[in-house]
Amino acid sequence: MAGSIARNLSLLRSDVASTARGCGRDPASVGILAVSKTFPPPAIEQASEAGQQHFGENRIQEALSKIPAVRRKDLTWHLVGHLQSNKVRRAVELFDVIHTIDSEKIATRISRCCEDLGKTIQVFVQVNIGEEGQKSGFSPRQVSEIVRAVDSLPYLSLSGLMCIPPFHENPEQMRPYFRATFSLLADINQYRAKPLTALSMGMSGDYRVAIEEGATLIRLGTAIFGPRAS
Ligand SMILES: *Cc1c(COP(=O)(O)O)cnc(C)c1O
Fold it and tell me: Which end of the chain is more exposed for a tag (fewer CB within 10 A), N or C?
């Protein structure tokens, strides 16, 4: 196992760069978020020693014990899982970026906690791009309204949109959802003075397609750390 995280990261970086170049994009416009859920601090430390700066967790409970146990204190932490309102304060204390704004209520609470703690937090609005009943996130037609609401909250800095499309073995079948999320962002930007530039989309199985459709931050777990125990 030793060294395999560093090797995975290095292979991924070159693959991400060549995928970006292949579709006419600047490789520097695509960032990698290492989703470290279920993996222990030493795995995170290995990745950070290999130059990885951004890490993602999906559960507050897990992050609460794990983040303080990671020896590197200069990492950037992203919450990529659903946030319950009773855990907002913890989330604001632990994380620098929240990808999962899925209700106006949660956005308002995050802003209030940020005010108490004297910090501003970067956020993404989560879009339920496949309009799946069991998934959180706003349906595409609600997005412009929530974007306006988030813009009006003083302690939130909105980066862009995040999506988790319906899963398919064949990533080509996910392309229309990534494309739709990109065009949703373009629609919103038509009415904004300051355009939103970030699209958090693409995971280990489909990141190439996501990059081709405009992802600026791909969220990779398995491809970096290996399979998770279920
Ligand atoms: C777990 C997770 C990922 C990473 O998934 P992999 O398929 O292991 O790359 C990305 N995004 C979210 C929201 C996740 O929960």
Answer: C
